[in-house]
Amino acid sequence: MTRKFSSISVATTLASGISNSATSMTVATGTGSALMGGVTLAAGNVDQFTVAIDPDTINEEIVFVTAVASDTLTVVRGRAGSSAIAHTAGAAVKHVLTSDDLTAFTTAISPVTSVGFAGSTSGTTTVQASAIAGTTTLTLPAVTDTVVARTTTDTLTNKTLTTPVATIALNAQTGTTYTFVLADASKFVTCSNAGAIAVSIPTNASVAFPTGTVINVQQIGAGQVTIAAATPGTTTVTSTGGTVASPKTRIQYSAATCIKTGTDTWTVVGDIA
Fold first, then answer.
1. What pTM was computed for the model?
2. How far apart are CA 123 and CA 140, in angstroms?
3. Secondary structure (DSSP) of 192-242
4. pLDDT tens by residue, 178-192
């Protein structure tokens, strides 16, 4: 249950007596809302609001209010070490902070395996601690920012990488034609066929690679690789090759790098004929 608290709760009295087994109680007419002090309890008995009946007397009993219907309160009896007993009409009822509440607070701030946060509009986010031996410390920077995760797409600024290890994903092609797809960005496309191979660069309207995208191509078979625009006139390819707009790999195992330099412009550099 979620514990609810109010700093403006107003004490009241029981409108009628209750037995030691009653699961609801009625307070003086028109005082239920003031007792709750602006607190709203979610449906389904998932929230609790702590009150004392006959507070500061030998008959004091702590109860948890879990639902409110005007001046009638649904209660869980005998909380925080107290006992459920009968109370007479006119018994004082007031919102209190108990040792049970403070124990819950202490437990919540002690080391825990996970902490849940309610989303700004819906859902929850859980921060989960790893299983470790000993103690570790996660220091958050004193800045308003968004956490960078391993599987998110992020732009990093002013970062220094110490001894980075980078790998390049491979895309092995064995046909005689191939057109780049978005997943080829930063990949190494290998082309292996006995015959000539045509590699096409799609238009930006077809595949919107970000400007600055790099795709590496290597001829690993006998067939020479030609790199050209899928739609000449829309996409412009430049290179130092003999045929500027459609450069070819020079020989088996030659490689070339295709770099997107504008919306529909690419340049090809490398071991080209």
1. 0.52
2. 23
3. --SS-EEEEEPPTTTS-PPTT-EEEEEE-SSSPEEEEESSBTTBEEEESSS
4. 999 999 999 999 999
